[in-house]
Amino acid sequence: MIRILIADDIKETREVIKKILDMEDGFLVVGEAQNGEEVLKLIPKVKPDVILMDINMPIINGLEATERITREYPNIIVIIMSVQGESEYLRKAMFYGAKEYIIKPFNYEQLIETIKATYERYKDLNKMIEKEKNAKIITLFSTKGGVGKTTLATNLAVLFSQGKKVLLLDLDLQFGDIAVLINGLNYKTIMEAINDDLESFSSIKQYLYSFNENLDVLFAPKSPEEAEFIGKESIERLLDVLKKHYDLLIIDTGVNFSDNTLFVLDSADYIFFTSNMDIASLKNAKTGLNVMKSLGYDSKKVKLIINRFNTKYGVSLRDIEETFKENFFKVVEDDEEAVIISINKGQPIASNPKYKKSKILKSLEDITKSIEI
Ligand SMILES: Nc1ncnc2c1ncn2[C@@H]1O[C@H](COP(=O)(O)OP(=O)(O)OP(=O)(O)O)[C@@H](O)[C@H]1O
Ligand SMILES: [Mg+2]
């Protein structure tokens, strides 16, 4: 059923059009308006697919209304009804985003045909207009290297992408290795992206690697010396655009408190602070968590994940909980075989059926289930 709103200041015209449309199967007249102001008020109430819009109307005319509608409701198809000799106005209306026009006086067939054809032409396009998103950000961080940030970032991204649109961003700018973990051969990197137009998603998109339908990845530069060319301003602009197109950004970082790292810690909704179970790592984590506190981060934002959890290492879950209190979040099982085979095959644990029932996968799934995105 095509829902149609008729906008014309002449009552008789509206009535004639309504009569014609009422006789036609598949059409439903959902409202009538005498001017542009009424149209704008009616839209949220009657939710039209198509608006038949006269140009000359009082208060807000058809041109202004068209401009506002196509900006605020890009899904609505505006068809202009114009009289002979209004070509300048008509040109403007099309410029403002009207999809089609019909010249008055028109007959029954012309009207029906124009609405049907225009609706058919644009209905699929409308499905493609995405609603603007506002992604949550999870930043992986640790004070000690090699504790599993990249392993966690990659596998969590794969798991979250079963239902959410996810972007995995490798901001370990010097030594980022996500490309290895997911076999991103012949890949483009953030280095190329920041040298292009950072304001537009269609430009950034060409530098993303599509892991699956819901997961895109932006890789770190290929050589460490490129890192210094990527500043905080570029990252800020990049995140602004990316946030609008994903439900979740997962950001992997290197081990440092650089400007870039601080910026993505600040921007994060959640910081997954990663540690292992050895005392050196735990001690470093404690210090790092204190730094987080002094930066003013809430304990709800900073979540400690103990990676490579194994009871045989002489530290119990209880010890960890007592030491880290409200910062403690989850443990991820120690499973060298699964992790190393995954790295060497370039296939994350989370997308390898072999590990479907593994404890490590269960612990990763527990994390994704415990976070509201
Ligand atoms: N849950 C786990 N079980 C067993 N081994 C693991 C686990 N997680 C990580 N590892 C091991 O730790 C190594 C380092 O992991 P990863 O590269 O993810 O750490 P990182 O914190 O990103 O390191 P870097 O600081 O160098 O970026 C892996 O190569 C793997 O051998
Ligand atoms: Mg890493």
Automatic annotation (TrEMBL):
<feature type="coiled-coil region">
    <location>
        <begin position="108"/>
        <end position="135"/>
    </location>
</feature>
<dbReference type="GO" id="GO:0009898">
    <property type="term" value="C:cytoplasmic side of plasma membrane"/>
</dbReference>
<dbReference type="InterPro" id="IPR050625">
    <property type="entry name" value="ParA/MinD_ATPase"/>
</dbReference>
<protein>
    <recommendedName>
        <fullName>Stage 0 sporulation protein A homolog</fullName>
    </recommendedName>
</protein>
<dbReference type="InterPro" id="IPR025669">
    <property type="entry name" value="AAA_dom"/>
</dbReference>
<dbReference type="InterPro" id="IPR011006">
    <property type="entry name" value="CheY-like_superfamily"/>
</dbReference>
<dbReference type="InterPro" id="IPR001789">
    <property type="entry name" value="Sig_transdc_resp-reg_receiver"/>
</dbReference>
<feature type="modified residue" description="4-aspartylphosphate">
    <location>
        <position position="54"/>
    </location>
</feature>
<dbReference type="InterPro" id="IPR027417">
    <property type="entry name" value="P-loop_NTPase"/>
</dbReference>
<dbReference type="Pfam" id="PF13614">
    <property type="entry name" value="AAA_31"/>
</dbReference>
<dbReference type="GO" id="GO:0051782">
    <property type="term" value="P:negative regulation of cell division"/>
</dbReference>
<keyword id="KW-0175">Coiled coil</keyword>
<dbReference type="Pfam" id="PF00072">
    <property type="entry name" value="Response_reg"/>
</dbReference>
<dbReference type="GO" id="GO:0005829">
    <property type="term" value="C:cytosol"/>
</dbReference>
<dbReference type="GO" id="GO:0005524">
    <property type="term" value="F:ATP binding"/>
</dbReference>
<dbReference type="GO" id="GO:0016887">
    <property type="term" value="F:ATP hydrolysis activity"/>
</dbReference>
<dbReference type="GO" id="GO:0000160">
    <property type="term" value="P:phosphorelay signal transduction system"/>
</dbReference>
<comment type="function">
    <text>May play the central regulatory role in sporulation. It may be an element of the effector pathway responsible for the activation of sporulation genes in response to nutritional stress. Spo0A may act in concert with spo0H (a sigma factor) to control the expression of some genes that are critical to the sporulation process.</text>
</comment>
<keyword id="KW-0597">Phosphoprotein</keyword>
<feature type="domain" description="Response regulatory">
    <location>
        <begin position="3"/>
        <end position="119"/>
    </location>
</feature>
